[in-house]
Design a protein that fits this description.
seven-stranded mixed β-sheet, 10 helices, about 25% strand, globular, binds S-adenosylmethionine
Length: about 230
């Protein structure tokens, strides 16, 4: 069972965040539905409700402490079971979210989840490198974000083409991400690192890297997935 409101609120408070009861109720529904659905569709390896609270919900929502994302149109690339964008949307209802994943079973889960939670979202089943070439998605978002999808060079090629000039790409990473290795890719794609924040989640090191888009991404990017894999920028 999902931990009770007082416990969750105290945990949010530890990170300087307040938990409204309406937000708690939605997170509780999310947790239960995730665990139930995960019995027959592989969505996450984290199945203990208290772990889900920390490793999925608080981890996702902590972005709001380090980056101003309210009122933004955000695309979550490789969203999986909705992380980080669905907890963020629950926490900040004014956020406009687009959920993209190459696995349809995950998108199907997200459609049902958002229906249950009565939250608006756009759903895309497909690969980032295909959809960011389409006019209706290219450079159309204030923010693209991703957690646990690929290394920063590869991720930049997948995420930066979605962002409008002046917008941001936010990468949620572990402590070992080598920013220096991705600097060349970020520059070629029209970005500049604006902020790197290190913090701890339950004693585990985390990092949020924010990349500002300062010029258009050249139209030859992203390349095909095989080229990206074979020769990362
Ligand atoms: N972001 C979620 C999280 O933090 O829990 C899911 C992470 S999971 C390890 C990576 C997800 O990215 C998978 O659901 C996978 O299908 C998706 N993915 C990987 N490469 C992708 C691509 N090129 N385009 C779209 N989705 C992709």
């Amino acid at each position: 069972m999902f931990p009770d409101y007082d416990f969750c609120n105290a945990e949010f408070n530890k990170y300087g965040l307040d938990l409204k009861e309406s937000v708690y109720n939605k997170l509780s529904i999310y947790c239960n539905f995730l665990i139930e659905y995960n019995n027959y569709v592989n969505l996450t390896a984290i199945t203990d409700p208290t772990d889900i609270l920390y490793k999925h919900f608080i981890d996702s929502i902590l972005i709001v402490k380090y980056a101003d994302i309210s009122e933004s149109a955000l695309i979550d690339v490789g969203t999986g079971a909705g992380f980080p964008s669905v907890p963020l949307k629950i926490f900040i209802p004014s956020l406009k979210i687009t959920l993209l994943d190459s696995l349809n079973k995950r998108i199907e889960f997200l459609r049902k989840l958002c229906d249950k939670l009565e939250i608006d979202a756009e759903f895309i089943h497909g690969r980032a490198e295909d959809f960011s070439k389409r006019k209706e998605f290219r450079e159309q978002f204030d923010i693209s974000c991703a957690r646990a999808v690929a290394n920063l060079s590869v991720l930049s090629e997948l995420c930066m083409p979605f962002v409008r000039t002046g917008g941001r790409f936010i990468a949620m990473k572990g402590p070992n991400e080598d920013l220096l290795k991705a600097q060349g890719a970020i520059k070629v794609l029209g970005g500049i690192v604006s902020c790197e924040t290190n913090y701890k989640l339950e004693n585990e090191e985390r990092k949020i890297i924010q990349i500002k888009k300062i010029s258009q991404t050249p139209t030859k990017y992203p390349r095909s997935s095989s080229q990206i894999k074979k020769k990362p920028l």
